[in-house]
Amino acid sequence: MLPYGVIARTQKSFGGLPVLAEITHHQLIVATSIANDKVSFFAGLLHDILKPLLKFEKRGSEWHWPHLDELEVDGTKVDLSEILRQSLSTILCENEIDSLIELIRQHHHRGAVAFNPITYAENEKRGLGIAVIEATLFPRKDLNDMGLYTCIEAKGLTHPYHFFVLTLIYQGIKYYLNEVYHRTFSSLGLKKLIVEYNFGSERIPEIQYDSGNSSLMIKYYVPSKLYSGLKVEHEYGGDAFFNIEEVRPEHDKVKYVKINHAWSDVLTFLVPSPSVDGLTYKMLCVIPGIIAYNGKKVSINSNKIKEFEHEVQNIMNRVLVDIWNNIKLDENHIRVLPYYVEGNEQGNHRCVFCGKRTNIEIKLSQKGLLSDKFTDYHRIGAGQSVCPLCHVGFQCEELLRKQGPASYLPLPCEISSVEVASDFKERYESKYGEYPLNPEEGMALSILGLSTMHLLSDAWYLSLLEKVNESGSLPAWVRLYTLRKQKKMSEFYMKFLIDRRVVIYPLIVKIRPKALISSYGGKRKKFVLNTETLEGHTLWRGSELDITEEHLDALEPLMGKLKYPLHEKVYRTLVSVYGLRE
Amino acid sequence: MASESSQDLDSLAIEFLKLVNDIIPWRDLPDELRQDKWRILAKRVMASNGDDIQEFLHNIVKSIAGDSFYVTRTEKREGGGTGVEERRRLGGELENYLKKVKGIGKEKELIDYIKSRAIPLVIRLSAEGGET
């Protein structure tokens, strides 16, 4: 089981179906869109700080989630201003802290949308409504009117290579955008955000700002008997890659799970979007500081939009140059890549892989593009032409395949099942006869949910694979992996590998991880991009048999026994019996 | 949540593989086979067949060990500070097992269940015995 955090919202609409939205991710999204001044930014980061206490109340027929001053913890009334005033005095002066407290306290007040940047960011009708991306995949409003920037709108993706290239570009854009977010946040006094979730008895959250290294630490105490003693720590920063690991601090017996995020892991999204041209994919990102606040009223900062647009265009060029530097194709093929990603095509020939029109003629024979290792002749058409998308996809995959270690591009996982933690249910059922979540019909998809599902797939693959430090001359945003060595397979990784359960308290979801995987067939054979994995059935390839979710389910009775050193032995047998390979 | 009937099949499947593992005289087989026993067992289970559970078992054992097999097995059990030796009559255990399977009346389903999950079941067996 991977403990991941706490939910950010429940829903009245959309049938009350739960969504995958984590509370820190929500606060970070709101804070980013109002990242113009320190007061607004820190208010955004802390505006729902009492939500993880999960103090739901049913008034009449409606559930409420009080999270401001009206709360009591252990019989004591929570004084929000006291929590904030003491902890932020090294970053904000007295007047600024007063303003910050007011912004947080008033963000649910009627009419606050005109003068409160948090409310403006969250309110769909009269503000941006960026929080709606947590609730649905297809908001009513145009995404560009919600504080999001569309980096790419990809159309006409008909072949696995097309999606492979789009996902590669997404990885590259995410990597460089993280630098932009980091620069913005650093200028406002935040270089690192550390969030701790301590499960057990309820306590008032603690905040510490360290001015030495410009880091903010938030400690949440989440009431849960079921997970009492469990601790998970998120770290967000400028140089972080998404990673999960179990940490045992020195002189401390209590292990905890640490999850590293890049800022852009929660601020960029690759989502499907319906259009008259069929299914399109949009690569979206939160525009930092789009909402300006002058202490009295809020407005849209159009300069920030222009600046950000310029940054994203530069980033797109950097990603294309990175690709070009590594596969050394004709520069023109790379230059027309965005044109093809957007669904356009030109030329009088047909691509042998996907059938798109192209004017690139190329030698395909054994000594040409396909080489003598290519085995998938039955999956290509006749001719001597290839479109830029398939050309780049083929060459990138070939490049990664030759490296030896595996390279995977995580895709959003699927949700196999969703349930609500039994202790949470009992707490509210005993008082109200029901609880404020409805997981009976599964989950609702949302834009943030998809990006979370993307991270959860990544997390699962990280439980099986470890990063290879040497990645040669590949771009910094391409990571290579190898199967974990037996000694590096901890109980935590082994258990998550088998049970695939993630806790975003009180939700417990079981995932079916998905990824695009290159260099699958080893160095000797070359296939058209593997598509089995796209379907999510095969989770990892083995020379004897592939690991499927059914097989992992059949291993679940082992869960209670996976303690040191048996988990290492079981892993060794698993690698040997399946013939797992990199 | 697994249904009761699939739980029945699951415990019968593990019991079946335990019997197969006990009947095969691993000690008398060449080193290279013994060192790779779980992989070989899983592969043979996947590759073998049978009209009934007895024939299925027979075919697995035969494909690994030929015509030799154990009819009894002596095992050390923990007890009273010193190990206590117990002689198990595998023939009798097999007979009881076959009766139990016939009684449930899902022989074909059990064979399919074992074959389709051969690898995870073998991994579980290896963990249960503590030897991997």
In short:
The complex is a heterodimer of chains A (582) and B (132). Chain A has 582 residues and is of the alpha+beta class. Chain A has helices spanning 23-33, 38-46, 80-87, 94-106, 117-122, 160-187, 302-327, 331-335, 337-341, 388-403, 422-432, 447-464, 491-499, 549-555, 566-578, and strands spanning 2-6, 57-59, 62-64, 72-73, 76-77, 148-154, 192-200, 203-210, 215-223, 231-237, 243-247, 256-262, 268-275, 278-286, 291-293, 298-300, 349-350, 357-358, 407-420, 465-467, 481-483, 501-505, 507-518, 538-540, 547-548.
Notes on the structure:
The complex is a heterodimer of chains A (582) and B (132). Chain A is an alpha+beta fold. Chain A contains 15 helices and 25 strands. In chain A, helix 2 packs across helix 4. The relative contact order of chain A is 0.14. The mean pLDDT of chain A is 89. By secondary structure, chain B is mainly alpha-helical. In chain B, 64% of the residues lie in helices and 9% in strands. A two-stranded antiparallel sheet of chain B has the order 1-2. The chains are: A alpha+beta (582), B mainly alpha (132). The interface between A and B is medium-sized, with 20 and 20 residues.
Label the structural class of chain A: alpha+beta
Shape field of chain A: globular
Low-confidence stretches of chain A: none
Q: How many domain regions of chain B?
A: 1
The overall average pLDDT of chain A, rounded, is 89
Biggest sheet details of chain B: 2 strands, antiparallel
Taking all residues together, what is the mean pLDDT of chain B? Answer: 84
